[in-house]
Amino acid sequence: MKAFWHDLRSHLRTDFRPDLYVATVLWAAILLAVNFSLDLEDTYIDSFQEKPLWTVLYFGLYATAYYVSVWLWTHFHSRSDIWRNRKFWLRSTFALICYSFYAGFYGHNKWSQELFNGQIYVFAYYCLHNLQSLLTIVLPLYLFYKFADPYPTNFYGMAPKRKGLVLYLQLLALMIPLITLASFQPDFLQSYPTYRDTNANEFFGVPEWLTALIYELCYGWDFVPTELLFRGFLVIGMSRVLGRGAVLPMVVWYCSIHFGRPLGEAVSSLFGGYLLGVLALSTRSIWGGLLIHIGIAWGMEIAAFLQNARS
């Protein structure tokens, strides 16, 4: 834990300004208030599902969240030169296009309908929904890394590193009692496990634990592109342009991708995103974030499975 507090203090000494942080929190609060009072994402943006405008609206939402946050950072740190930096525009625009395409992608719906004539549609839909990021995020980022990034280094933190590993394990261990307590709540069991019996095991003639395992692996995978883009590309990669200023704008954008979730989850993403961003910047690796993200997700799944087995 000492290393964590050292890294956090080091980051704050360089980046923290009360006016900047207050302004950023207010901006995030405005975004949260607008979304949850108007139900912006679920009611309006998602009403254009499967239409080209769906992706465009997501781009508008994410670009607004991100660029206003960047403006706040450049304003309070007197770094107007950032707006004239081509590398900043190249990286930020590319990231926004990738994630907006990912958020508005619906090809997996058609693929699921066509796979085995739709006989395992629900199972295929949820698995392919989690895997489509290979096409919409991971592949584009890899191509950018190979052919367009002037500062290629270990694919935006994908190389495993030991630094911070013990800390991440400690943070994950702290979550186990919280997950256990949450698993006794009725609303928790209404949402978890996310795996549902789809009869896919009967179609394939295999035990249900096997189809559940396949689903859970796909479910866990979906956290990889999230960490790769937000903590990898937008923090480790963008730090070449913004330095430590890469963290705050990432956090606000990261919060906005949770607008379709409960308010508490969206708010907590601000704190979690900030800590994971600082740690990724310090360790130059996203593996810690992956460990925590996937560990918590699978922990909630396991807790729910165990609770259902008891009842």
UniProtKB/TrEMBL annotation:
Record GO terms (molecular function): endopeptidase activity; metallopeptidase activity
Record flagged with keyword Transmembrane: yes
Domain CAAX prenyl protease 2/Lysostaphin resistance protein A-like, residue spans: 227-296
Membrane-spanning intervals of the chain: 20-38, 58-76, 88-108, 120-144, 165-184, 229-255
UniProt keyword annotations, A-Z: Hydrolase, Membrane, Metalloprotease, Protease, Transmembrane, Transmembrane helix
GO BP field: CAAX-box protein maturation
Keyword hit for Cytoplasm: no
Protein name listed in UniProt: CPBP family intramembrane metalloprotease
Organism: Spirosoma validum
